[in-house]
Amino acid sequence: MKILILGSGQDAGIPQTGCYCTICERARVDENYRRLAPSIAVFDKWKGFCYFVDASPDFKYQLDMTHREINDTKRRGKIPVSGVLLTHAHPGHCNGLWHLGKTAIAEKNLPVYCTLEMGQFLQKNYPFSLLIQEKNIIIERINPNEEFELNGLKCTPNRVPHRNEIADTVGYIMKSKKKVIYLPDINRWTDSILKEINTADVAIIDGTFFSKTELPRFKAVPHPPIRETTELLDGTNAEVYFTHINHTNPVNRKGEEREYVEKKGFKISYDGMTLEI
């Protein structure tokens, strides 16, 4: 079983629309600096399943990436996705669902796993409501802190503190041969979440900003800065990969900040990275 990093950027990705900072300008001419919006695929091509965690605005590119990774040429024209697990309702994490509708691939009965609050949001708001009416997707309710199983992959959604103005937010603990925690979007680390990370084999977690000072409106969009996270997780046995990286984050380029992270034993995820689990 493997995890494929489909998108390691913050919701708007890199380059960000309308931004002409050094990183965004570099990303427009050099694909090595690009980051798609946040999502991962958990798959086992021998067992024949693939689940996306979140459906980003870059869904169509991420489908192509999955086809290439699985090398599933026979399924060209059909999506290689068995279902989608959603973390929350912010645009970078669910807006890609519209690609499943009749204006694009016109998928039928694809399971979308989400909490009660998230499901109610989808049912009440267009275009998601149309996807449900047309049976492009089927909402499968999951409950926080209750484990469910998908083709031998054990998944537990855990509520996390985030800006829940639309619906609640969860991260996922997934168990196969290894324990994996995926927490791309969070306001702050709690003791219970840090404990889960420290008992995981692999942790793919929020690395939106390197410090609190890099974005003037940080208080409006709080995320735990990488510098503080590395201190909190100092000595952890988990393999830690930072994701959801904003275009302002200096780890996007070689320099002292990226060296600091790597010397601490942490990793910066990138689009197309694969991890054995």
**CATH top-level class:** Alpha Beta
Q: Give the overall shape, derived from the CA principal axes.
A: globular
Structural class: alpha/beta
Say which CATH homologous superfamily is assigned.
Ribonuclease Z/Hydroxyacylglutathione hydrolase-like
The domain tally reads 1
How do the strands of the widest beta sheet line up side by side? 6-5-4-3-2-1-14
Largest sheet: 7 strands, mixed
DSSP summary, beta strand count = 14
- Termini gap: 6 Å
**Total number of helices:** 8
CATH architecture: 4-Layer Sandwich
| Fraction in beta strands | 15-25%
Overall pLDDT: 94
Give the low-pLDDT segments: none
Q: Spell the H/E element sequence.
A: EHEEHEHEHHEEEEEHEHEHEE
Helix content: 10-25%
